Amino acid sequence: MTAPETEEFAERFDVSRETLDKLFAYEALLKKWNPAINLVAKSTLEDMWSRHFLDSAQIFAMAPEDARIWADFGAGGGFPGLVIAILSAEKAPERQVILVESDLRKSAFLSTVTRELSLNIRVLAQRIEEIAPLKADVVSARALANLPKLLEFTARHLKPSGIAIFPKGARWQEELAQAKESWSFDYEAIESLSDPNSVVLKIHGAERV
Ligand SMILES: C[S@@+](CC[C@H](N)C(=O)[O-])C[C@H]1O[C@@H](n2cnc3c(N)ncnc32)[C@H](O)[C@@H]1O
């Protein structure tokens, strides 16, 4: 039987049975690897759908459908990047997702899921600072760094027309004010579906001032 949170997820994001099965397979691999390499906090393992999957899928839904290159920085256990790739297989099949993760054990996990689920993902087991410009349409990052640092990471890798999408916690306004000291940009702050105190920041046209 399908759990209510799974049904709610399927309905909210209008995904097929095949996509749900890929998410179940990813969940099983994550639970298998987590005790060895701590991909997500143990306390959140039983909350996979209402927390990590929902949190990631809302980011997917905020990007233009025709975004071809999507880079997720500091992908860790695959949030949001792996969920983006699983949803993209159904809804944006031309898209390639690039997962940048410098921790070798975590990037090995990301490569295993990529292979087992036949996803259109390129895993880069490198530091963001060291990779060649990606010319991405979208860059996302969850729980990686504060906003000024994220803008610095993103600047080299986003196309001029591209957007950056960063989920942020309750202190997002402080980070925004700090970022505005060195950057000019347009943004939207969208209330997070997984936590009413958090937002997802959508940023366009960032330029150093
Ligand atoms: C707190 S974890 C967040 C993981 C995932 N985004 C999530 O929300 O569950 C941050 C991840 O970023 C990776 N990381 C930190 N600095 C990095 C860098 N400069 N280049 C690539 N990866 C980095 C770490 O290895 C870690 O896996």
Notes on the structure:
This protein has 209 residues and is of the alpha/beta class. It has a single domain, classed as 3-Layer(aba) Sandwich (Rossmann fold). The chain has helices at 4-13, 17-37, 48-62, 81-91, 104-116, 147-155, 172-180, and strands spanning 69-73, 96-100, 121-124, 136-140, 158-168, 183-191, 199-208. A 7-stranded mixed sheet has the order 3-2-1-4-5-7-6, sandwiched between helices. Strand 1, helix 4 and strand 2 form a beta-alpha-beta unit. Helix 6 packs across helix 7 (172-180). The longest helix has 21 residues, at 17-37. 38% of the residues are buried. The structure holds S-adenosylmethionine. The site of S-adenosylmethionine (SAM) has 17 residues, from loops. Keywords: Cytoplasm, Methyltransferase, rRNA processing, S-adenosyl-L-methionine, Transferase. Its EC number is 2.1.1.170. It catalyses: guanosine(527) in 16S rRNA + S-adenosyl-L-methionine = N(7)-methylguanosine(527) in 16S rRNA + S-adenosyl-L-homocysteine.
